[in-house]
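fwd from M.: "can u put these together and see what the complex looks like"

so here's what she sent:
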Amino acid sequence: MDDKTMSEETSESVSRRSFIKGVIAAGAVASSSAYLFRTTTLHGQPSAPGAVERLITLNVNGQDRRVDVMKQETLAMTLRYKLGLTGTKLGCDRAECGACTVLIDGVPRYSCSTLTHTTRGQKIQTIEGLADPATSKLSAVQQGVIDEQGFQCAFCMPGFVMAATGYLKTNPNPTRQELAHGVSGNLCRCQDYDKILTALMKGAEHMRNA
Amino acid sequence: MADTKLVGQNYTTPDLVAKVTGKAKYAEDYRIEGMLFAKLLVSPHPHARVKRLDTSAALAMPGVKAILTADDMPGAAVGATLGEGVQASAQAERGLTNEPLYQGEPILALAAIDEQTAAEAIEAIVIEFEPLPFVVDPIESLRPNGPNARIQGNVWMRPATPPAAPAGRAAGAAAGAAAGAAAAGAPAGVAPAAATATRGAGGAAAEGQRGTGAAGGAAAPPGASAAGPAAGAAAGAAPAARGRGGRGAAAGAPAPPQIAIWKWTDEDFAKAGANQMPMGKATDEWVFGNVDEGFKKADLILDETFMTQSTGHQPLETRTAMAYWQNGKLFLHGSTQSTVQTVAAVARWTGLTPDKVVIISEYTGGGFGSKIPGAISMAIPALLSKKANAPVMMRITREDEHFIGRARPGILARVKLGMRKDGRITAIDMYAICDNGPYDAQGDGRSAGTTISLAYQPETMRWRGLTVLTNTPPKTSQRAPGGAQGIGLFEPLLSKAAKKLGLDQVAVRRINAPAGHAGFGPALPNGKQAYVTSAFVKEALDKGHELFDWDVKKASYSGKKQGNLRRGIGVAVSPYSGGSIGFDGLFIIKPDGRITFQSGIGNHGTHSAFDVHRQAAEMLGQPWEMCDVVFGSTAKNLPWTCISAGSQTAHAMTRAAHAAATDAIKKLQEIAAKAHGGKPEAYKVAGGKVSGPGGSLTFAQAAQKAIEYGGKFDGHELPEDINNFTKTSAKNLVGQGLMAVAKDAYPRDGQSQSFVVGFAEVEVDTETGVVKVIDYTAIADVGTVLNPRGLKGQLFGGSMLGLGHAKTQRWAYDQHYGVALARRFYQNKPPTILDAPMSFTAEAVGLPDPETPTGIRGVGEPPVGAAYGAIMNAIADAVGDEIFRKAPVSLDIILAALENGGQRTHEALTAHV
């Protein structure tokens, strides 16, 4: 897969074949990367074709961030390992648990199952971006959590808060049951669901009163 | 200024803003310059030996820095001392192995500059296996020619005659901590340790069965897992202390369990009725009274087999760990339930002394018993980091976590129940087979028996048990180990008996309910049983009966048919260990008047890390806004603290807080008397001041005086009886203010147990098999309530875990190949938010436990069995008693039985299907 093809493809039209070839070439489906990756030759070893990183611009929490990203890199990995935003968690890395939920153009998405390259030109919001950057005032949903002491171990919290924040934009005055459906893509193993719902409903109330 | 009441009040924990803004760091969130990434090579076989291993191609790859194999793990040499005087055992789990005992067991680990390189390098390793015999079903292993999970055999048992060897105590800090643990854990006025003497081969206080007795390297999860109620006090002991030769190094201490070969006969199998568990010889047994006489008094006798499945803990955060070394010390960022208690465990697993280990764990994403003192896998990045001379991050994937993340042992049990026509239970004869997994001896089978004994107070009881090894992932205590399974398997039988005799279900629980110093478990040498500190189960039943509208629901909804929908109601009583004793409190009143509480409790979602200190703040009349809590790193001078497991923390650490606060009050009085004259007793502590005849001092002033006076006031002199771990921490805090430091030396008569009674109403769709929980009420007898919102959260969370066990959670293993068919969340089906009951009520009885100065008992575990039992009882009430004999009661079980005239079609004998 060469870069000429890449430049003609938009972020939406990376072909399935080229994606799979890139994955196979990289030798592993491990979707993670670290600070340093073999994009240049080391000791005469050619870099794996799928290992090429491209410098792209992402809009995260209102800021434009320039970052080197592999084609098969997931947004969760980019956020956590390259942008210093560890609030988004990895619970399963395969779209089962929702711990990695972020907002992309206001829509809750599983960042572990979103290719970073496809998010160019979109607005990404993570848990770190909810509070007011100038005053540190918590968002409505965050305040609801504080008011009701929501969550126990809180590993699932960022995912739930982002999912609720996105859902409430579509349905600002939900019943408890509707809100439960709205965040049913998020798992909590401490099973704090009752208190979580109370906290998120409180957040909804704050959002309506804002 | 009036003193504010803190105990029993809701508040915002100091960590909540960090959590809700994403600033809170869990193990995988730490980054260090030069950090390497580790990946594991795991076994594809359920049992095998590594025949050939060639790592040269992997090591030659650029970016690959180090490989760790089983030979690098401590304890590789049999007989090596692993600190704390515990001898290594060739049979212990060590983190890496050349003889994998389950599919998914880590064989080696590799560190590279990034995860992708590490994963590629793993692929480049050449490894060949020699497959060995394996078994995933305990019953299969007990057949005359059945396979054994291990070369050495297929069951854990204690040799009949304990050797007179002294309990070994190694010198050094390790032993100091462990010795402190042993002393700390020893409860006052409790019999169970003496229970070791009652049986021969039956074996000891089951704490030893938990496996540390056998193996120094074992990932010892003490807590109340071993023997459930019977080890409530023992749960206070550190992992190291358990399984050693007994507390006073007395002769006749129980020998460590060993792996043996144990087979039943063809006749045993032939004798069992259809779909009934055979009952060949058992390795363990205890009795209370004479069950034959008991059955003679019964008007109804039932004899049934029931199976509960193994279930993975599946915490949302896996056991990722990051390690680095500095100045010869290991710094480990990990996911653990207990900050302080992880030090000794990691020291043991890495071959270090505890003073060389620093544990950092400010936030843990759930444990539920699988991370009590951390996890043995922590040793891997620790040792890789040493080898590679760089920090190592070992990210555990959800796939890895299914295998190494631990699971609750499934229990297959046969129970014969004798009931009088008024509902009183005259006899229980129970035989429990516990699926042990491949490593540490699990005490769940035993705990199931003692829990049932406590919950229903049978007039006579016999318990027999076997702990059978299988080549499935390692088991460990999971939220109410043994207790949850015990209530789950027994309650449906109890309900069936009550129904046959035409009795009300709540009335039957009430007539058999424990009260006061209720006894449980085997008869001890003095003829009596161990007993609890208090029990208010009748009160809980009465309260729930009213709040749940039991009579109304029974009359209107129970058994109601509406098209294809059926309603049913059920109730269940669930005890579990609720407290340990003997730990230390430590806090400083600073010269600015603020109090800094040193908290050694893990922060894994219970909030106990913060709650317990409110006990002390209240006693001093200090507003909570003037309090700070130091937690999350053992480098921060924390006191000797209990494990955060076994529902013991609220009890143990409020006692420690009480002791430290009492020490502070005494010192404040003495300082005031010294400064202003008169007798210390004449001074009172209230409203942030200590005042009396001569005048008053603010806390700030008193703290400054404490530094001036020195001695015991600011920590220069320390009490003798505090643990060495606390002494080390306190010495680092000398001269910072008024030091309050004390050991919980309060007496306690009996073992602390907490109780939850669950009431459930379900609706079963007979066309789809779907079960909906319409209404659930949990009434808790946990003594005085410490944190109301926290309590409700624990009641809901534990109830949901019980619901998951009743409805959906289980494993599935291919019996032919011994490999996992159900992995990860999607297949193991933990409850989602949509499974929550439509209506949930939680209340506390609120009567204080008389055997602890704070009145407070723990709550984490009892709710599980209550929901497990109540929901299954409600299902039976809705669709019939003969529908199921195993849990979870999944859709297919219900539908198949309904199509078969209400008779179940499954056999409840094969595990993991």
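replying to her w this: Chain B touches chain A through 67 residues (CB under 8 Å).
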